[in-house]
Amino acid sequence: MTKRVYNFYAGPAALPLEVLETAQKELLDFNGSGMSIMELSHRSKIYDEVIETAKKDIKNLMGLDDSYHILFLGGGASTQFAMIPYNFLKEGMAGDYIDTGAWSTKAIKESKKIGETNVLASSKEKNFSYIPKDFTIDENAAYLHITSNNTIRGTELFTFPETGNVPLICDMSSDFLSRELDYTKFDLIYAGAQKNVGPAGVVIVIIKDSMLGKIKDADLFTMLDYRTHVSKGSMFNTPPAFPIYMVGLVVKWLKAHGGLAEMEKLNIKKSKLLYDAIDNSNGFYIGATAKEDRSRMNVTFRLKDESLEEIIAKEALENDLVGLKGHRSVGGLRASIYNAVPYAGVEKLVNFLNDFMKKHS
Ligand SMILES: *Cc1c(COP(=O)(O)O)cnc(C)c1O
Predict the structure, then answer these.
(1) For residues 13 and 173, what is the distance between their CA atoms, to the nearest angstrom?
(2) d(CA 173, ligand 1 centre) in Å
(3) What whole-number distance in Å separates Cα of residue 252 and Cα of residue 71?
């Protein structure tokens, strides 16, 4: 018997069981090729169908037309921190950033190495426990960079800034395809797959065609120039073929389950169940972030009695509830309840939290 636990890791993270089963079934003979997908040429017709379908499905789910390009790149979301300013931060312009947590901070650090970088707002003084909402966008900025979900601290953006003519760039790594939004507001979106839509090894970059004309007039490194990957359809070099295939299966699974509207409903329901348990615990559990900015993906909380935090993580493990320890930089507990974590998993976690509270209060 195969044992499956409820996986609350922040990334790599849970994948839908149906997706894993499909991958398992197709592993030895992909689509009649007599090979696994990992052994196929990325230039073959069979693979072309895989990558093109994945692109089309992502566009469909997000309501994007052909003025957007879907890229599948290596280097993780972290390489995008550098690639964005490297391509778009021109002389005489500044890159504007909102600093909402560790990942934004890393993006800012890279930008500063390349050019003028302005942090318009930051919630650092309060340990990134909220989303700053009061800031003025510089009309001449090269772009505004935001992070829609802060994986480590557990905050999420629910309203997005109006940027006028300034391109809006968003790191959506940890809430990608988790909800309905007007995605046409964004000029560039990127997301490491391993949080919400696949295994580690591929970053999805969605770039509006008009952004290509805003790239610096310089002889950029070929691999770090967005135009290379747009013009070659992510096939300039060997793409991360297996992770792309897995992302393709996950987006098919999303489509089969009602798309982003249904996924958003489920994510609201799951996160509410868990936050309600925290809020109704009479202070035994304490939510770690401002209520209006609470992430539906990464639920962060502490125990009033911090000495119980080791014990609870251990007991959770014994109950097949895995990955609940907070990020090493912040401590406490964090339940990552991405798309693939079923409602039943959150229910089991809530029952466990309630039982633990009864035993220890
Ligand atoms: C995990 C994460 C990253 C880094 O992703 P890598 O693929 O590991 O480089 C960047 N931004 C956010 C919001 C993340 O959650």
Answers:
(1) 12
(2) 6
(3) 18
Is beta strand 68-73 parallel, antiparallel or unpaired with respect to 203-208?
antiparallel
Phi then psi for 346, rounded to 5 degrees?
A: -70, -40
Same domain flag for 249 and 273: no
Which residue of 173, 177, 196, 197 sits with most ligand 1 atoms within 8 Å of its CB, as the best mutation to test the pocket?
Answer: 173
Q: Are residues 320 and 212 in the same domain?
A: no
pLDDT in tens, 278-302: 999 999 999 999 999 999 999 999 9
Residue 102 is predicted with a pLDDT of 96
Convert the pLDDT of each residue in 44-66 to its tens digit: 999 999 999 999 999 999 999 99
Is the full-model pTM beyond 0.90? yes
* Inside any domain, residue 12: no
CA distance 189 to 61: 14
Residues labelled as active-site residues: 103, 171, 195
Instruction: Say what the pLDDT of residue 2 is.
Output: 86
- The answer for 289, left when phi > 0, alpha when psi is -120 to 50, beta otherwise, is beta
For residue 355, the enclosing domain spans: 259-360
Among the three residues 256, 290, 325, which one is the final residue of a domain in this structure? 256
> Is 175 near ligand 1, meaning CB less than 6 Å away?
no
The closest residue, in CA terms, to atom 14 on ligand 1 is 173
Contact 151 CB / ligand 1 (< 6 Å): yes
The CATH number for 284's domain is 3.90.1150.10
What's the 46 CA to ligand 1 centre distance in angstroms? Answer: 30
Say which CATH number the domain at 87 has.
3.40.640.10
- The reply to whether ligand 1 has any atom less than 6 angstroms from the CB of 100 is no
Tell me which of 83, 103, 300 to substitute to probe ligand 1's pocket, judged by most ligand atoms within 8 Å of the beta carbon. 103
Residue 6 lies in a domain: no
Both 243 and 322 in one domain: the answer is no
